[in-house]
Sequence to fold (211 residues):
Amino acid sequence: MLGFLVPTERKFFPMFEASTANLVKMSAVLIELVHSDSPERRKALTKQIEDLEHEGDKITHETLNELSSTFITPFDREDIHSLTSVLDDIADFIHGASKRMDLYKLDVFTPEIIKLSELIDKSVSEVHVAVKGLGSLKNKREEVKGALVKIKNLEKNADDVFDLAIAHLFENEKDPIRLIKLKEILHILETATDKCEDVADVIKGILIKYA
Fold:
């Protein structure tokens, strides 16, 4: 059981928590970004997300370096690598969405973009809960399982929002360039929720192995 690990093995858990805490910060900034009416403020928020993404990269590299030099790990090396990588993917997609909003000079955010951003924010909050629970799985198993269910439901909600948004775009958007821009941003945002579900899948596998 994870609750009986020797201290040297537990160094991975603070790294996982640091990664998910960073994602929570990124998603909060994204929410502020899509609700901002100020071009200057949006530019500053985009830079803030970029800085947080770089911080996430540092945590990822540190975790993978530790993995390569640690003989005994808290759970399978493949699971540690997968979890680390997919957490990094979430950060990449949040950053990618904000970067394209800036590059494409998007000044009006559709309700669907706002909704997907909110779903990302809720999803990474549950990811944070689930990952924190890994360090105390003996006492937190049900809490972790509950968070995984919420992540799955949020991803399904995001799929529905994305599908309706694309249908709405092709039906109502007359500017083909704007259509392409919005479609790409919507896809990146929806993919971020897919990556949250990937985290849930990795953690579900860990729960099964350490039942």
Notes: The two ends are 8 Å apart (CA to CA). The chain has one domain: 8-209. The chain has a mean pLDDT of 93. Residues 137-172 form the longest helix (36 residues).
